[in-house]
């Protein structure tokens, strides 16, 4: 089916309709796919101000642009765009009522710890926006030294893993602590010390390796067969987005990321179109939206939630009766992990957000500085237990 026509604004341009789902578009949007959720022809009635040469309707029809905007909410509401006055007090009220559903993990700390009695806490931490502030240049998303110390102290008492969309190497470089487990590329690239991280025979993608210090580690890479493909896509994306000012393409090994936070919004359609065009040739890859970033990932049943489950099992913490996993993250990719913990009634997701948003998390923290406070409280709590001989 090819709905691209010479006369009307095209709706779908992929020759194979199944490509809608294989591109992962359906999972990005609140509706399943344009064709399925809206009466056919809806897009044909949308007046276009100016016909754009090329095929920008691909990305419009697929909802990419809406998703790009939706996945990049402004930090603060731009009141000048509205004819109503939104005071900071209004925002505070909205945030406060949102917190009834997602209470602060700081003020609810005692409740969380009551539940943790007799259990081993396992900590899972996202990196960007959780341990480090979101900044314009992703290469400079450094965590503060105070945060590094807080994470290191926490890792002394609790098994701690960093689960990031970045490549494992990059997140390791930023965090720089050897005592942690690292899961890069949304959990598709997991590394842990051999002594702790079991590498069972039933995980065919688990291999013995050495880290940068020459220490023996176990690597688990459920999508290793995709490595050459992602590399090829990365190089094509770099080439094809060259002309769009502000675009930054990164190779995260299991995921190629196209950052558009520094791209003028009027050029977002061009960015989306570039990615769309490349993806069309790779039915085994799909698109996901992060914060001002388009990410091309393998179609594989693996996400941060699966990574949490894998790590818990591998660390011998799969028994949910004795273990309380706590996952702290700010991104929509973290929702998979929140969901695993919520649905299995296994532990708590904590969403880091300064604006109200729906989540599968149980609790909230406003920003990375509150994450740091939470980690410190955890350590103090553990120390006080230790002091009482309660370990
Ligand atoms: Mg994040």
TrEMBL record:
<dbReference type="GO" id="GO:0004805">
    <property type="term" value="F:trehalose-phosphatase activity"/>
</dbReference>
<dbReference type="InterPro" id="IPR023214">
    <property type="entry name" value="HAD_sf"/>
</dbReference>
<dbReference type="InterPro" id="IPR003337">
    <property type="entry name" value="Trehalose_PPase"/>
</dbReference>
<comment type="similarity">
    <text>Belongs to the trehalose phosphatase family.</text>
</comment>
<dbReference type="InterPro" id="IPR006379">
    <property type="entry name" value="HAD-SF_hydro_IIB"/>
</dbReference>
<dbReference type="Pfam" id="PF02358">
    <property type="entry name" value="Trehalose_PPase"/>
</dbReference>
<comment type="function">
    <text>Removes the phosphate from trehalose 6-phosphate to produce free trehalose.</text>
</comment>
<dbReference type="InterPro" id="IPR036412">
    <property type="entry name" value="HAD-like_sf"/>
</dbReference>
<comment type="pathway">
    <text>Glycan biosynthesis; trehalose biosynthesis.</text>
</comment>
<keyword id="KW-0378">Hydrolase</keyword>
<dbReference type="InterPro" id="IPR044651">
    <property type="entry name" value="OTSB-like"/>
</dbReference>
<dbReference type="GO" id="GO:0005992">
    <property type="term" value="P:trehalose biosynthetic process"/>
</dbReference>
<protein>
    <recommendedName>
        <fullName>Trehalose 6-phosphate phosphatase</fullName>
        <ecNumber>3.1.3.12</ecNumber>
    </recommendedName>
</protein>
């Amino acid at each position: 089916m090819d709905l691209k026509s010479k006369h009307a604004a095209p709706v779908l341009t992929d020759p194979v309709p199944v490509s809608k789902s294989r591109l992962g578009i359906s999972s990005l949007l609140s509706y399943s796919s344009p064709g399925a959720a809206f009466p056919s022809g809806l897009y044909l009635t949308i007046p276009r101000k100016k016909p754009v040469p090329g095929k920008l309707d691909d990305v419009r029809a697929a909802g990419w642009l809406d998703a790009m905007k939706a996945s990049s909410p402004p930090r603060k509401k731009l009141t000048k765009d509205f004819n109503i006055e939104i005071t900071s007090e209004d925002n505070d009220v909205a945030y406060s009522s949102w917190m009834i559903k997602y209470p602060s993990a700081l003020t609810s700390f005692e409740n969380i710890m009551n539940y943790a009695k007799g259990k081993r806490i396992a900590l899972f931490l996202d990196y960007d926006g959780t341990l480090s502030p979101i900044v314009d240049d992703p290469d400079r998303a450094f965590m503060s030294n105070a945060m590094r110390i807080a994470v290191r102290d926490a890792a002394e008492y609790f098994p701690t893993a960093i689960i990031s969309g970045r490549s494992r190497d990059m997140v390791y470089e930023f965090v720089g602590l050897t005592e942690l487990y690292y899961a890069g590329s949304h959990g598709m690239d997991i590394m842990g010390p051999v002594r702790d991280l079991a590498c069972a025979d039933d995980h065919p993608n688990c291999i013995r390796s050495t880290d940068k210090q020459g220490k023996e580690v176990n690597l688990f890479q459920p999508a290793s067969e995709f490595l050459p493909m992602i590399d090829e896509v990365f190089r094509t994306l770099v080439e094809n987005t060259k002309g769009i000012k502000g675009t930054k393409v990164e190779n995260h090994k299991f995921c190629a990321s196209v950052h558009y936070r520094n791209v003028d919004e009027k050029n977002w359609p061009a960015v989306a179109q570039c990615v769309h065009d490349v993806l069309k040739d790779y039915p085994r890859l799909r698109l996901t939206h992060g914060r001002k970033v388009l990410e091309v990932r393998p179609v594989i049943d693996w996400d941060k939630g699966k990574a949490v489950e894998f790590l818990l099992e591998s660390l011998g913490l799969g028994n949910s009766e004795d273990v309380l996993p706590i996952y702290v993250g700010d991104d929509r990719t973290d929702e998979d992990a929140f969901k695993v913990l919520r649905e299995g009634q296994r532990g708590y997701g904590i969403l880091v957000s300064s604006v109200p948003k729906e989540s599968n998390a149980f609790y909230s923290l406003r920003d990375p500085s509150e994450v740091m406070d939470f980690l410190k409280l955890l350590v103090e709590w553990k120390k006080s237990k230790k002091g009482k001989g309660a370990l």
